[in-house]
Every structure is written in structure tokens, then in C-alpha cells.
Amino acid sequence: MSPVVIIILGTLLIAGMLWMKTVPAHRRGAVAFKILILLLVAIIVILTVTGRLPWMGALVAGFFLLLKKYSAVLRAIPFLRYIFGNRKTANTQKNSSSGFQMTRQDALKILGLEEGCTSEEVIRAHRKLMQKLHPDHGGNSFLAAQINEARALLLKE
């Protein structure tokens, strides 16, 4: 490899290591994986541009490197069910603890809000209810979970 390529790859590696230092310890494995993928992509691009790797090989290698990214297509199968079948499931969020499907209207009703509310109003209503119904203040964990799920559903959209 030419010195320019080595300098570019070294710079990317150093930048990645500095980035890794700023990340909390429990996320360093994911960051190391991202750095490795970025370095592999950079090497493939450099080899392709310099003519050492045919374009078809670069496409195949890029496909395999980005396969994890495109695996989201498999997760889109429920969306395809929304398109071709029951349209109600697209507006719901599954609660893993109870199996209850919460709709946007349910979330608004739980927080005592109306359609068209702002994110600040959602946060304010959530905070007010959690102060009253938090398990540490005499409430129960089921109600707290429902309030948190309603907040998450409304802020996600």
C-alpha cells in the first residue's frame, strides 16, 4: 500500500480510538464493531479506487458488510402485514410485559391529553402523573409502566 493509504487508515484508526475513549464502558463493544466495519469499508473503497479490487468484488463485499443494516427488511414484515391486512396493528405498540396493544388514543387518554398536544405537554403530563402514581410514592408498577409506555408512544411519533 502507498504511504497515503496507510496515513488515511491510521488517521481513521486513531480517530476511532479517541471516539471509543469518550463512550461509556458498557457500549465500547458496539463502538469497536462500528470502527472495525468503517475500517473495512475504507479499505474496500481504497482498493476499489486504486484498481486492486474489481467493482463487482466491491459490490459483493459491500453487500456482506451492510447485511446487518439491511436486515431491517426482515423486521419490516409486520409493516407489510399492515399494508396488506389489518391496518390497526400499525398504530399500536406492543407492551412486552402484558401483551396489551396500546394505541395513540389510549396513550392520550392515559395521560389525560387531547390530539395535537406538543411534546412539552406530554412530558408535563407524564411528570405530573408519575409524581402521584410512582411505586415509591404509593402507586404501583403496572400504572407506572402504562404511563411510561404512553409517554414513549407519544414522543416517538
TrEMBL record:
Keywords: Chaperone, Membrane, Transmembrane, Transmembrane helix. SMART domains: DnaJ. It is a single-pass membrane protein. InterPro entries: DnaJ_domain, J_dom_sf. Residues 106-157 form the J domain. Belongs to the TIM14 family. This is J domain-containing protein.
